[in-house]
Amino acid sequence: MVGPMNDRLTKSDWIGHGLRTLAAHGPSALKIGAMAAELHVSRGSFYWHFRDIADFRSRLLESWKDWATQRVIRELEADHDEPDRLKSLLSRAFSGEPRDDLSIRSLDKALRAWAIDDDKVAAVVASVDADRMAFISKLLEESGVESQKAAHRAAFLYWAYLGQPIVIKSGLLSSTAAAIDDISDLFRK
C-alpha cells in the first residue's frame, strides 16, 4: 500500500491496484478518481503514467495476459524437464491456489465477465485461451501424444480447469498429488 501523497507510484503500482480492483469489484470499479483515492494520491499520478482510462485498461489486459499466462509458461519451461511440465501444470491448475487478494482464477473470472460486454476484452480473453490450450497441447505432444489427439485433450483439460471453480462442494475444488499423477498419466500417450 502506498503511503502519503509524496510517495511516487509506478506504472506497476497502478496496474497491480487495477488488477486487484478488477478481481474484487469488476470493471465498473476501474475509475480513475476512486482508484487514486484508494491509493492516497491525486488523479495526476494516474495521468503521469497513462494517457486515459482506455490506455490504462489496455495495459491492464496486457499485464493480465503476461502474468496469468506467459509468466506461467516461462516458469514451467525454465524450471522443469519435459516429462514433468504437464504434471507441474496440472498441479498448479488443480491442487488449489493460495487464497490471497489476487489469484489467476479471480482475475480470469472478472475478465470473462468483462468480456461479455466488451469486444476488445473478449479478443484478449480468446487469445489467452488459445495460448493456454496451445501450451497444454505442446506438453501433451512432448509426452508422446499425437498432435490431433493432443489438441482435443488440451481442450478437455482446459475446460475442466475453467469449470472447476463453479463446483459448490469445497472438497472438490482441489486434487491430491496422487490424483494429479493419475490424471497426468491418463492424458499421456
Describe the structure.
Residues 19-55 form the HTH tetR-type domain. This protein has 189 residues and is mainly α. It has a domain at 57-187: Tetracycline Repressor, domain 2 (Orthogonal Bundle), CATH 1.10.357. Helices cover 71% and strands 0% of the residues. It contains 9 helices and no strands. The chain has helices at 11-25, 32-39, 43-49, 53-79, 82-94, 104-115, 119-142, 147-163, 177-187. Helix 4 (53-79) runs parallel beside helix 7 (119-142), helix 5 packs across helix 7 and helix 5 packs across helix 9 (177-187).
CATH class of the domain at 57-187: Mainly Alpha
* CATH fold type of the domain at 57-187: Tetracycline Repressor, domain 2
Number of strands: 0
Strand fraction: under 5%
Shape: elongated
Radius of gyration: 19 Å
Task: Note the run of SSEs as H and E.
Answer: HHHHHHHHH
* Integer average pLDDT: 85
Q: Structural class of the helices, strands and pairings?
A: mainly alpha
Distance N to C terminus: 48 Å
Unreliable residue stretches = 1-6
Biggest sheet features: none
Task: Provide a short characterization of the protein structure.
The protein is mainly alpha-helical.
How do the strands and helices of this protein lay out in sequence?
Blueprint lengths: L10 H15 L6 H8 L3 H7 L3 H27 L2 H13 L9 H12 L3 H24 L4 H17 L13 H11 L2
Helix pairs in contact: 1-4, 1-6, 4-7, 5-7, 5-9, 6-7, 7-8
